[in-house]
Amino acid sequence: MGRQKRVAGIVEQIDGGVAELCPDDGRPGRWTLLVDGYPQSAVDLADPRRLDFEYMRRLASIVDGAAPPGAPLSVLHLGGGALTMARYVAATRPGSSQRVVELDAALIALVRRVLPLPRNADIRVRAMDARAAVESMSGARFDLVIADVYRGARVPAHLASLEFLTAAAGLLRPDGIYAANLADGAGLAFARGQVATLRELYADVCLLAEPAVLRGRRFGNVILAASAVPLPVAGFARAGAADPFPARLVHGGDLDRLVAGARIVTDATATESPAPPRELF
């Protein structure tokens, strides 16, 4: 049998840098998106429920806990990437209404051309800055707002303030959930500030991260969830513990101790999340 020819990746200039869509030779339909060399998303077109990145699986556990299994949700995604989480919601909760805000119009065009969205899924994608989009909307219309916005490999400062988070909170239904994917390193100063800020707006907040990240031993993803009503933290904890890269849930008194002394972040004090070490990728 002859050797199979390797499928070349697709590299294109986008508004925010250089995007590369890399196919997986061993799994047809599986693609990874990189922007300026940083992995952003992984998509399995054959099974959108399959999530290769652990931070996506943590976000998925929040989607899973937001309503009874299979019940449709109204979701606002801030940050599009390869539209991985929107595809997951469409696959696990048919009939969901989803809106995606992604700043990079050229990235949207590339993803939609190479990785088409599932038919009959109510997913609308808009090219716009996430904060401008949030501030242009009104009404408590969403069950879930998911913030996963990066400029390069850093969360922009204008999406880390009380002013922005207040505007996002106003779009949630009374029992809705705000979820965010952050990246942080030793000391977790950025994540701790975000928790302190969310606690100004929501009655219940929790955090999910790998133990090594929580102990400051390595740079990694931190997932936050917040709601005006009690979060289904037991389900989040089970999903995190069962993951191939287990995550620890931090909630209640443990979260009090983790964020002790952290200050609320405002537009005047907000900074980008820290840059990851280059060798991480």
Describe the structure.
The protein is an alpha/beta fold and 281 residues long. Helix content is 28%, strand content 28%. The protein has helices spanning 54-65, 84-92, 105-114, 130-136, 162-169, 189-198, 211-214, 233-242, 252-259; strands spanning 10-14, 17-23, 30-35, 38-44, 74-78, 97-102, 122-127, 142-147, 172-184, 204-209, 220-227, 248-251. Strand 5 (74-78), helix 2 and strand 6 (97-102) form a beta-alpha-beta unit. The longest helix is centred in the first third of the chain and has 12 residues, at 54-65. Residues 1-6 have low confidence and may be disordered. It comes from Dactylosporangium aurantiacum. It holds the Pfam family Spermine_synth. This is Fused MFS/spermidine synthase. Keywords: Polyamine biosynthesis.
Beta-strand proportion:
25-35%
Tell me the number of strands: 12
- Helix count equals 9
Kindly report the name of the CATH homologous superfamily: Vaccinia Virus protein VP39
Helix content: 25-40%
Q: H/E element string?
A: EEEEHEHEHEHEHEHEHEHEH
Query: Order of strands across the biggest sheet?
Result: 7-6-5-8-9-11-10-12
The CATH C-level name is Alpha Beta
Provide keyphrases for this structure.
globular, Rossmann fold, 4-stranded antiparallel β-sheet, 8-stranded mixed β-sheet, disordered N terminus, single chain, Fused MFS/spermidine synthase, polyamine biosynthesis, alpha/beta, 281 residues
Give the topology.
Layout: E1 10-14, E2 17-23, E3 30-35, E4 38-44, H1 54-65, E5 74-78, H2 84-92, E6 97-102, H3 105-114, E7 122-127, H4 130-136, E8 142-147, H5 162-169, E9 172-184, H6 189-198, E10 204-209, H7 211-214, E11 220-227, H8 233-242, E12 248-251, H9 252-259
Parallel strand pairs: 5-6, 5-8, 6-7, 8-9
Antiparallel strand pairs: 1-2, 2-3, 3-4, 9-11, 10-11, 10-12
Helix pairs in contact: 1-2, 1-8
Keywords: Polyamine biosynthesis
InterPro entries: SAM-dependent_MTases_sf (IPR029063)
Protein name: Fused MFS/spermidine synthase
